[in-house]
Amino acid sequence: MDPNDISRVPQPGIIPGPAARPVGQPVEIPPTSSPSFRSVFENVTQQQPSTSPSSSEQLKFSAHAMQRLQSRNISLTSDDVTKMNAMADKAAAKGAKNSLFIVRDVAMVVSIKNRTVITAVDSDSMKENVFTNIDSAAII
């Protein structure tokens, strides 16, 4: 038997596959009855244009911030909180993540992403204090 004849004999269990797809040509997937991934993705991104919280979401106060406000006898008016919400919206629009808000004689570190006041410091405690992990500041 000629050695070339052996290479022509089909091997059991080996089935030749389709020809290689040219580079740059998209893979064609047979249609299904369900919507395509692309259409689902586009619908979701159109409904939710951004992953940040909506501007209508109010700021929350963490347990730590509430404790600081009470222990330092700091009171905020509803007007202060309204201004803080508006400033949080502005900070989010500029891409801020953690911001220092100064309202009258109170400084607060605010997580813009989570819309949460993390801590609050009165004017006496602010002296010679360093605020870290902030990327913006707003004087309200």
SSE blueprint:
Elements lengths: L2 H6 L28 H11 L12 E2 L1 H9 L6 H16 L4 E6 L2 E6 L4 E7 H4 L9 E4 L1
Parallel strand pairs: 1-4, 2-5
Antiparallel strand pairs: 2-3, 3-4
Can you count the helices? 5
What global shape is seen? elongated
β-strand amount? 15-25%
Task: Calculate the mean pLDDT score and round it.
Answer: 83
Assembly form of the protein:
single chain
H/E element order: HHEHHEEEHE
Instruction: Please give the alpha-carbon distance between the first and last residues.
Output: 94 Å
User: How do the strands line up in the largest sheet?
Assistant: 1-4-3-2-5
| Number of β-strand runs | 5
Tell me about the largest β-sheet.
5 strands, mixed
Judged by helices, strands and strand pairing, the structural class is alpha/beta
* Global Rg: 30 Å
Helix content estimate: 25-40%
Low-confidence stretches: none
Description:
The chain is of the alpha/beta class. The protein has five helices and five strands. The protein has a five-stranded mixed sheet with strand order 1-4-3-2-5. It is elongated and about 100 Å long.
